Structures are given as structure tokens and as C-alpha cells.
Records
---
Amino acid sequence: MSATTMPPALGPVKDQAVAAALGRRRKAADRLVRLLSYAATLIGLVFLASILLTLFYKGFGAMNLSVFTEVTKPPGSEGGLLNAIVGSLIQVALATAIGTPIGMLVGTFLAEYAKGSAFGNLVRFVSDILLSAPSILIGLFVYQLLVLPFGGFSGWAGVAALTIIIIPIVVRTTEDMLTLIPNTLREAVIGLGAPKWKMIVLICWRAATSGIITGILLGIARIAGETAPLLFTSLGNNAWSTNLNGPLPSLPITIYSYAGSPFQDWIELAWAGALLITLAVLLLNILARSVLGRGK
């Protein structure tokens, strides 16, 4: 028989029993992993739901008009959280106003001017360290830098600590959003004769607006509930005060102080303040997702 008429070589004969055993083993492993995944998800949801339900139950029970119209008062008095709310708004607003442009400019530098450079890698490394650093370390750093040399706690020190926290968040978001813009768009703009700064400001920033805004909102949500850095910087104040040169009240510090108090009315105010922060963070996250969704 010639080579052209020889039958093709046959592969090894499939053992149906071995194949069935392997199939059963794979299906069993798949069911086990799926069951463990469902169980882990359920456990996480149960804990999250229990925390939120407890917070909403106790927070809404302590919520009334005086929370928003009265300042904190001694135990047994009809006090509220007005001074703490205003103090938090001032510090968060100033930190956002200072940190956002710095973060955007640094992120733009990393994405547009420092690609592959050693200095850019160093800046990115430092930014990543700040992004993952415990906030209490930032509070201690600002304490050594602005509190001890100037002889006391101040709202400006609290603003500085929150600014350091929000900057790396905006840096990472801005760099990531600008990196996603295709280079062909940049080449087209440069090809029309536009300078690079105008290409960045009018084209790249505009294309990445939704992502950058999302990062800013997430940064605001992060610093709105920070307690540790404020303990070492602005300290807190139970009286009405908007003076940034002295101790400034804030909602996280008030919650921290009142939650461990032996007075029931202060504990109820702590629950009300915790609910306010939770709702604010939830609203910011929903807003960030909606902005990102519209951008896509």
C-alpha cells in the first residue's frame, strides 16, 4: 500500500470511565468554589446590613431639628451638631479647593510630560505611598510641622492634613483618566498646530472630565469621615467657632468624643452625627457613579 493511500494515524483511545470521573471531579470543585463564594458574599452582606440597620435605627431615632440648629451643649441640655457640621464643611471645602488643583496638575504631569522618566516614576511612587499611608501618620506629620512650631492646634492644620490625604487620590484618578485617552487624539490636535498645553487643557481634560470629577468626589467622601488626622491638628471645639487660627469643631471628632461618653444625650448625638456622615458619603458615591456613567 502506498503512502498516499495509508489511513491516518489514530490518537489514543479515549477512556470513557476516566473522562467521566474527571468531569465529576471538575463539577464538584466548581460547585464547592461557587458555594464558598456565595457564602462569603452572604456573610459580608449580613454584616454590612446589620451595621447599616443599626446605624439607621439609632441615628434616625436621635435625629431632630435641634441637631441642625443648635451647637453642642453640656450634658442634659438640648444641644445639636451645628458647630461640628459647619466646622467639617469648612475644613473639607478648603482641603478640596487646595488639593484638587494640585492633584490635577501632578496627575497631568505624570500622564503627559513624565512618561517613562525616572523623576515621574519617583513622583508616582511617593503618591502611591501617600495613597495607602494610614491617615494617623499624616496627622502626626502635620502635628510636627504646623502644630508644635506654632504653639497650638488650629483649623489650618486640619485643612493641611485633609489636603495631603485628598491629593494622591486626585493624582491617581487624573493620571489614569488621561492615560485612557488615545494618542491619536493628541496627534490630531498637535497636527493642527495647537500647542501642547492647549491640547491638554481643551481636549484631554475635557475628555477626562467625568473620570476626574469622580475621583474628586471619592476624595471628598474619604476625607469627610477622617478622625485620626484631625485629633492631632484641629483637635475639635464644643463651642461655635469658624476661626481657623484656633481649634475648630468637626463632625468626626464630635462623634469620637461623644460615642464614649457616659451621657445618653451625647451618645444619641454621636449616632445622629454618624448617620449624617454615612448619608453624605453614600450621596457622594452615588453622585460619582452617576457622573462616571454619563461620561461613558
---
Amino acid sequence: MRRSKLLYVPFWVTIVFLYAPIAVVVAMSFNSGKSAYTYEGFSLKWYGVLAQDQRVIDGLVNTLIVAAGSTVIATVLGTLLAVGLARHTRSRALDAIALMPAVLPDLVLAIGLLLFYGLIQLTLGLYSVVLAHGVFAMAFVAAVVRTRLANTDTSLEEASRDLGAGPVTTFMKVTLPQLAPGILAGAMLAFTLSLDEFVIAFFTIGNLQQTLPIVIYSMIRFGVTPEINALGAILLLVSFTAVIAGQRMTKIGEARAQD
């Protein structure tokens, strides 16, 4: 049965709607003129201007620090949470609570974290954003790892315990290698989410330091410039590279696990 070509029209319309604005941002980042809306010729000068903007460089460094730290926290806690919910404590209520940071609006989560920091009298800074992003991304890591857990062979863990291995040894020698592809995928997802997260960082970072999304927000308040387009193109490249690297490492991990 032949499919009508009209069925592909909604698909391509959706693709164009989603990716055309991104393509425009990348194209206009190579604009030689100062206008962000009129293309006047090819040039790389805005990338040079961007490289000399100390505020952008500081924001990028802060963002990478936050993303790296929160990824470690989210990966460790998310993996342990997934294993605990899937293997030891099965409860729909706990499942809902564990995934709540992923489904709550960012604004609600950000206000809640800010109130909590105020309650415990924690001074705001990069470390407070690291903790906040770790809590936010932990739910996503747990969801990814739980999906991987559903496809693992529990008989290997049972055989390990029957042979005298303790819970820690079984987890480190049997469970963890099977979960490696899911853990890598969850870690890359956590890193990408933290990289461009704005609302939670805005509420929990304080006034002395800024992450890159906050720097971008402060810059576009006075209008979009080709420098912003260049920065957006770079962030797009970083995100794209992270996604491809995560998929590649996941495939390699799955291949090794099968061997």
C-alpha cells in the first residue's frame, strides 16, 4: 500500500518551524554588519568580539563549573535513586516524589529552592546553583537509568548473591557495568540541561556571579546583536556535540555490555 505524499507535509512543516529560526541565528552570526536582522556579508568578526568579551568568558566558565558539578551530583544520586526504587523499595508514591523535580515548573522549583536556602541561611553563589541543578537533573538521570534497569538481567545479580557476594560487591561488579550506557546517557542529559538552564540559576545564584544564560539575558534586554547570534551558534554546537557524544558512548557501552 503506497503512502500519500501529503502525509509528509505536516512532518516537514514541523521541521521547518522548529529549525528555521535556529538556522537564521547561525547564518546571522556570520553577518558583517551591526544589524541582527539585515545580512550585509560574510564575516567572522563577531566571534572575535565575543572572544574578547570578559563578561561572556566569565559566564561561560561559571556555567561549565556549575554543569560539571551538578552532573556529578545528579549522576551519582540519580543512579542510586533509580536502583533503590527499582530493586529495593517499589512504591508509586515514592516514584512520583522522585520524579517531581522533572515535572514541576522551573519557576516553582526555583522559588522553593530559594526559600529553602533562606531557611537554612545558605549564602547564594555558584555552589547553591550546583546543588539546585543537581536536584533538578537528578530526576532525569533516575528516569533514564530506570529505563536501562528494566532491560537488565536480574538473574546475574541473583547468581552473584548466591555465590556469596555482598550487596556492594554485586552492585559494583554486576549491576553497575550493566547500567553504564544508561548512566552515561543520563550524565550527558544532566550536563546539557544545566548548560542552558536559566530560571533556577537566576533565582539561586545571588548578585556576585552570573552563568552564561543570565549573561545572555542581560545582553538581549537592550536588543539582539550579531554577538548574541554568534554566542547562540557556539552554544548550539556545544549542545549538538554533547548529544552526539552521549549517543556514541551509549552505543559503545551497550556493545561492551553485550560482549
